[in-house]
Design a protein that fits this description.
Order of helices and strands: HEEHHHHHEHEEHHHHHHE
Keywords: Membrane, Transmembrane, Transmembrane helix
Pfam family, one: Vut_1
Shape: globular
Protein name: VUT family protein
Strand order of the largest sheet: 1-2
Number of domains: 1
Largest sheet: 2 strands, antiparallel
Low-confidence stretches: 1-5, 210-214
Structural class: mainly alpha
Length: 424
Amino acid sequence: MNQSLPSQRSCCFLFLSISVITALILLINVSFKIVLVEGLVFSVNGLICPLIAGLYLLALRNCSIKEQRHLLNISLLTLYLFCIGVYVLINLPAAEYMHDNPVYQIIFQDIPKKFFATTIAFALSFYLPHLLVYPKSSKKSPTPKQCMLLALLGGISFFGLDFFLLFSGTHLQSFKHIFIDSFMIASLILLLIGIFYLAFLLKYQNLLTPERGSEQLPLYHYFICVAIVVMLICLACEYRIVTIINKYMVLSASSLFFPITLVISTILGELWGYRVNLKLCLILIATQFTFDALLMGIVALPSPTFCNLNHFYNYIMLKRLPAASLTLFIAFISNAMLLNYLKHSKWNLHRPLRILIANFCSNSLLCLIDYGLLFGGIYPYDQVINLVVNVWHYKLFTTLITLPFILWFCAYMEKNKSLTLQYD
């Protein structure tokens, strides 16, 4: 179907949504990370919470009221999906030969507590104030002063609530010292954000705000956001190997949910075409690379001995970063190119056959490349081969199971031509 190119503001909305998703999931992953630098002992929350507030400030200035609300909804959806997905995967029975490194479990400890703390803090600091200041019926744009107050005060509140909900009752050493240092760093970052924002206003104070009220958000933006969350769930549990069906089948935990991203890629390719599918591929690779690089950088920061994840990440991250990027590129590019080529080929293949061929090839490439790079040298050769075969069978099964849904959804969308997300 021929679709018009997205507007500049819709691209800005997509970029901000992806950035907030990445920052929130990064926050959950390193919630209990404590940094020790030159006598300062602070939580990583003091770095990431102000970053999220800065992204929220950009959304307040560059997006309409309804786009802002969509961004907040996507943020809450991200927290729900990620925490529930990771919680399900880590509670599946682990394979007997899995290297159960105790350090590896630190990132997964207290997932319900991390979810509760981050979700409550985000809702009370950003979501609820936005609803109170700009109710659903409101059409007026926020003033520059309101934007700064909502973002900076929300950032301080977000950090404070998240810190107390996370660390209260954990018997953290030097709790007051860590909170004061973290609060000072968070306040300094927010102050710098406020200064840059005011400097921008002074320089571009006559910049006109575009008319807001008739905008339409492409539906595929939501699909891309869901695909990113699922991908980050899979990355979080990539080295975990589980057993299902009475311990008969051994699978990697990441393979259980990853077919959802391929379903989204197929839907985008069929409804919006090759360019949007390629856009999804590039966004997934860029998000994965950015997320892993930030995760490596944060974990590499020096920590007290009672809270140190460095040994685990030094062991896996340097291998995972290039392996995941290469695997995503090959799997999604092959799926997008095959869908596009078969759609315009001389054979005139029907949609179900096109989807089966494209998904079969991309899943096969994914299994052969990904697990060889990730688990080679960690587990014996025969166990890796057995894992690859089991995952390939599982992915083929999910392709067949999800095919009727893809066909129904594409037919429904083409019939109703509802390829944009209409605002109330």
